[in-house]
Write a structure and sequence with these properties.
By secondary structure, the protein is an alpha+beta fold. The chain has a single domain (24-98), classed as Nucleoid-associated protein YbaB-like domain (Ybab, Chain: A). It is built from 3 helices and 3 strands. A 3-stranded antiparallel beta sheet has the order 1-2-3. Strand 1 (26-31) and strand 2 form a beta hairpin. Helix 1 (2-23) packs antiparallel against helix 3. The model has no long low-confidence stretch (mean pLDDT 86).
Length: 103
């Protein structure tokens, strides 16, 4: 029982370290040929949004460009997360959680 509690605390600690490392990373997503820029951190929280004033006159184009910028940022973050997880042992973390749940 205490061993499982220790394992859980270890997994929680490693997950927190991974989350902290990801929060320090930022990536920029771009849409509308560079007219929309969204900066997100590694935990997929938007930090800044920049929209060129020329897009504001066309709502459909603006919405499409914002969507494209968000999707671009998320794609980049997912790639960065995979690398960070590999570097910080996050893949082992996921396996450890699965193993803990099985027993």
């Amino acid at each position: 029982m205490f061993n499982k509690l220790k394992q859980f605390k270890d997994i929680r600690s490693r997950a927190k370290a991974l989350q902290d490392a990801l929060s320090q990373e930022t990536l920029e997503g771009v849409g509308g040929w560079g007219k929309v820029k969204i900066v997100m951190d590694g935990n997929m929280k938007a930090k800044t949004v920049s929209i060129d004033p020329s897009l504001l006159s066309n709502q459909a184009s603006c919405e499409s460009s914002v969507r494209d910028a968000i999707n671009d940022a998320i794609t980049k973050i997912q790639k960065m997360m995979a690398t960070k997880m590999k570097d910080l042992g996050g893949n082992d973390l996921a396996k450890d959680v699965q193993d803990l749940m099985k027993s």
